[in-house]
Amino acid sequence: MAAERDIDDLPKNAANYTALTPLGFLERAALVHPNRKSVVHGSVQYTWLQTYQRCRRLASALSNHSVGFGKTVAVIAPNIPAIYEAHFGVPMAGAVINAVNIRLNAPTIAFLLGHSQSAVLMVDQEFFLLAEEALRILADKSKSNFKPPLLVVIAHESCDPEALQYALGRGAVEYEKFLETGDPEFAWKPPQDEWNSIALGYTSGTTASPKGVVLHHRGAYLMALSNAIIWGMNEGAVYLWTLPMFHCNGWCFPWTLAALCGTSICLRQVTAKGVYSAIAVNGVTHFCAAPVVLNTIVNAPQDETILPLPRVVHVMTAGAAPSPSLLFAMSQHGFRVAHTYGLSETYGPSTICAWKPEWDSQPPETQARLNARQGVRYIALEGLEVVNTQNMAPVPADGKTVGEIVFRGNAVMKGYLKNPKANAESFANGWFHSGDLGVKHPDGYIEIKDRSKDIIISGGENISSVEVENILYQHPAILEVSVVARPDERWGESPCAFVTLKQGVDKSDEQRLAEDIMKFSRSKMPTYWVPKSVVFGPLPKTATGKIQKHLLRSKAKEMGSLKKSRL
Fold first, then answer.
1. Are 388 and 505 in a shared domain?
2. Which residue ranges does the record assign to the AMP-binding enzyme C-terminal domain (predicted)?
3. Quick one: 213 and 80 in the same domain?
4. Which one-letter DSSP state was computed for residue 490?
């Protein structure tokens, strides 16, 4: 018995235990491949040794300003080298990175900066006036308690010298000058506790009130490695930054790329032409993007594409449920799509529709339908289930019974910053509640049917807006579509389709187009699913490509109750 106790009595010590953190990936990359390209942004190129030195300079410069443990550094920037460096340099100083959505308005940014109590604000020159307005709003609200953050402005590669001088005249420090104040040999230390916070990110804005999602070093480490294993990424992969790094910390891929000693190709603005060009010129092997970006790629004009592709390009998509028709179109273009699913609260994607060899023999349309499911848990996620919300019992794996998708494990956030009520609700019964409704198939793969708030209840029947959208995407004229509930005098609610048409479609007779879409719908779906209203125009989106359904629901409500619905 004593011997058995001795097995578990062996203590941790400095030789056999270190807190997990993804920061060590950068140190290793600089050692193993010091001369390999780490980051490419137009004519600007850095090696892994240079990136390591620049990140240490950033950590040192922040430390010189007493920015360390417990402090937050906000970054407002598109996909440029500085935001990549901040994902290492900020936590190397012991601080927490708060990557801010560049498409938010000034009042929202003011809220985020105040809520996070950011000690430093790094901002790309293009967004300096936005940041300045946000700080002005925050100062007015805070009154005498306002302590402005240290302002660091990142010069645009084709910047207007006068605009830069304006920023410097407002008290900002230029980023490269700021780095020069730091030590390239700065002796950074890993966190003493892997539960320490590494990142703070705010929910994307598909709902009215953003919440601050706090992530820890352990989760970032595990998810960074899980990305590579799940996706089958090789050492030295060339990754194109189409996914914003401010969204869920780029799904942890800044840290994954360091672990793989890969190369990041930065893309300030995402266009189909830019994506195809990077594939041809930079040898891109992988990129991540929301379905809306994939839609742009497959519908790009011929003169903006490079087909056939010079190699198989691996694509990871998440952020919204892609339609089978979109997945099929991507495969026809030569892209191999891995479909993942997750939330800001789960470090980004944390489930994957793991491809099975037996699917290779299936027709392409069947493959696309199977790949449209959200799949199974990541290696770093310990628990994934679809449960009855009343008693938390798992739903049967019949592909029909709808329940809520819940998560458990190291890939779940620490919690929401300063929001105990939301934490209690989200972590009820020992699971993280996603708010997404789905089913479990007999093979164990889950499939989203809708957000709980997006279910349309028409005449007492539940209608999945996602399933209606998947069918509408098969219509040859539809580029993008989102379906929400509209008040209906007879049925309570009925489906309302907001549609963006493809380029080249004759838009002169919207009434005829709407009738054609309804006729198409009646041939493909149950009668009560058919949209009773069709509205044409661009769809409102977050910076990560998610359609803002709450705005469309408000618009549908403003349209008033549908009085003559008979279907």
1. no
2. 467-546
3. yes
4. T
CA distance linking residue 204 with residue 212, whole number of Å: 10
3-state class of 461 per DSSP? strand
- Note down pLDDT in tens along the chain; length 567 residues: 455 567 888 899 999 999 999 999 999 999 999 999 999 999 999 999 999 999 999 999 999 999 999 999 999 999 999 999 999 999 999 999 999 989 888 988 999 999 999 999 999 999 999 999 999 999 998 877 788 999 999 998 777 888 889 999 999 999 999 999 999 999 999 999 999 999 999 985 444 468 999 999 999 999 999 999 999 999 999 999 999 999 999 999 999 999 999 999 999 999 999 999 999 999 999 999 988 889 889 999 989 998 899 999 999 998 777 888 889 999 999 999 999 999 999 999 999 999 999 999 999 889 988 999 999 999 999 999 999 989 999 999 999 999 999 999 999 999 999 999 999 999 999 999 998 899 999 999 999 887 777 778 786 667 878 889 989 999 999 999 999 989 887 777 899 999 999 988 988 889 999 999 999 998 888 788 899 999 999 999 876 667 888 899 889 989 988 875 444
The count of C-alpha atoms lying within 13 angstroms of the C-alpha of 260, restricted to the half-sphere facing its C-beta, is 25
Give the DSSP H or E segment for 480. strand 478-488
Give the range of the structural domain holding residue 200, as residue numbers without chain letter. 42-217
Same domain, 157 and 190: yes
Same domain, 420 and 318: yes
Identify whether 77 is part of a domain.
Answer: yes
On whether both 433 and 463 belong to a single domain, the answer is no
Domain tally for the chain?
3
Kindly report the three-state secondary structure assignment for every residue of 257-300: HHHCCCEEEECCCCCHHHHHHHHHHCCCCEEEECHHHHHHHHCC
Taking the C-alpha atoms of residue 87 and residue 311, their distance in angstroms, rounded to an integer, is 30
pTM of the model as a whole? 0.85
Q: Nearest Cα to 276, choosing from 337, 333, 338?
A: 333
CATH number at 487 reads 3.30.300.30
Whether residues 349 and 394 fall in one domain: yes
> Rounded distance, CA 450 to CA 241, Å?
28
Structure tokens at 557: 């409500």
Contact 352, 332 (CB under 8 A): no
